[in-house]
């Protein structure tokens, strides 16, 4: 086996820059996914049947098709249809944000429905408006239950972020490809970046476990 990691040493700063490049779009995407997912979740539990159907259809589209296909559709399809050249960064946050919102909506919906229905009925009996009931009573309890699941979604999004390399976005994966092509030594570059992904995911996993432990202690 002919391995020589010394050759990638000069490229390490270049690859390390990909950490922030990757996390930047992932963080923005998860914020978009959470906000949009929360709205979709509220629509799913509403009394308007048409809106519920539209929300379920939206979710099924993003959960039922490959993420890489969604990325290609946004990056290559939008310019063809709208005549607007979308940047790699914008394509990445749009695709991952919309995709994440479909999963987050299900997480939040399940969290809301897990809250004792008696509390909602009691609020209605006291004449508390629906909006205040959701914001002050139901959502705080639901958020406490779903935070670990949301953390898992963040971890999954971070791992899947490597897909954006196919549109030449200079994330960690793309930078490893560039270094491998320049040196004709792909194994070393991919292994180094793979270790970076592993460390990031392990840190996020640890934070998730600490969060779960803290939430369990506050019960």
TrEMBL record:
UniProt xrefs under InterPro entries: AA_ABC_transptr_permease_3TM, ArtM/GltK/GlnP/TcyL/YhdX-like, MetI-like, MetI-like_sf
Keyword hit for Membrane: yes
UniProt xrefs under Gene3D superfamilies: MetI-like (1.10.3720.10)
Bilayer topology term: Multi-pass membrane protein
Cellular compartment(s): Cell membrane
Membrane spanning residue stretches: 20-43, 55-78, 189-211
Pfam families found in the cross-reference section: BPD_transp_1 (PF00528)
CC annotations in GO: ATP-binding cassette (ABC) transporter complex
PANTHER family: GLUTAMINE TRANSPORT SYSTEM PERMEASE PROTEIN GLNP (PTHR30614:SF20), MEMBRANE COMPONENT OF AMINO ACID ABC TRANSPORTER (PTHR30614)
Record family assignment: Belongs to the binding-protein-dependent transport system permease family. HisMQ subfamily.
Name of this protein: Polar amino acid transport system permease protein
Originating organism: Piscibacillus halophilus
């Amino acid at each position: 086996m002919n391995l020589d990691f010394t050759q990638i040493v000069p490229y390490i700063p270049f690859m390390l820059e990909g950490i922030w490049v990757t996390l930047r779009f992932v963080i923005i995407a998860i914020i978009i996914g959470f906000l949009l997912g929360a709205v979709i979740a509220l629509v799913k539990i509403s009394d308007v049947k048409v809106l519920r159907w539209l929300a379920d259809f939206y979710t099924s589209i993003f959960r039922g098709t490959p993420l890489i296909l969604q990325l290609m559709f946004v990056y290559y399809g939008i310019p063809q249809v709208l005549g607007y050249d979308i940047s790699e960064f914008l394509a990445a946050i749009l695709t991952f944000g919309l995709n994440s919102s479909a999963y987050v909506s299900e997480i939040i919906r399940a969290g809301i429905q897990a809250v004792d229905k008696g509390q909602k009925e009691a609020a209605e009996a006291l004449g508390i408006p629906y909006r205040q009931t959701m914001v002050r009573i139901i959502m705080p309890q639901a958020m406490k239950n779903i935070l670990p699941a949301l953390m898992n979604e963040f971890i999954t999004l971070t791992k899947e972020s490597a897909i954006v390399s196919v549109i030449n976005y200079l994330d960690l994966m793309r930078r490893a490809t560039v270094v491998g092509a320049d040196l004709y030594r792909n194994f070393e570059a991919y292994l180094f970046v793979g270790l970076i992904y592993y460390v990031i995911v392990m840190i996020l996993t640890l934070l998730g476990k600490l969060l779960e432990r803290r939430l369990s202690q506050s019960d």
